[in-house]
Amino acid sequence: MANPNQVTGRVFVTVNGQRLASKEGAKLDIGGVTRTGVKGDSGVHGYMEATEIPFIECTISHMAATDLEAIAAYSIESVVFQTDTGQTYSLSQSWLAKPPELSKGEVHLRFEGMACVRSS
Fold first, then answer.
1. Is the pTM of this model over 0.70?
2. Residue 4: inside a domain, yes or no?
């Protein structure tokens, strides 16, 4: 049972069952609808909706076993975002949004997908 007083502090990112060496600061956006207000000379008219693509972003440590070419080929993957407070989100049919870039021992990754579903 999850502790109701615990605040999410650590997250774990897994791709196709393999946990990444992710660093602090991973992000999850479950996607959905963004509403933007519409205004005119007479005041607020209402809002417009736009669909947002769900994504998971993380930075991984680059090590000897890190295969940037394999990561760059990710195009239909299962990506899981798991919190230390017991919540798990799955990003289905995911792709890597841009090629991985290595800088100072780190690689930033952004996975986008068709849907994000909470599984626990």
1. yes
2. no
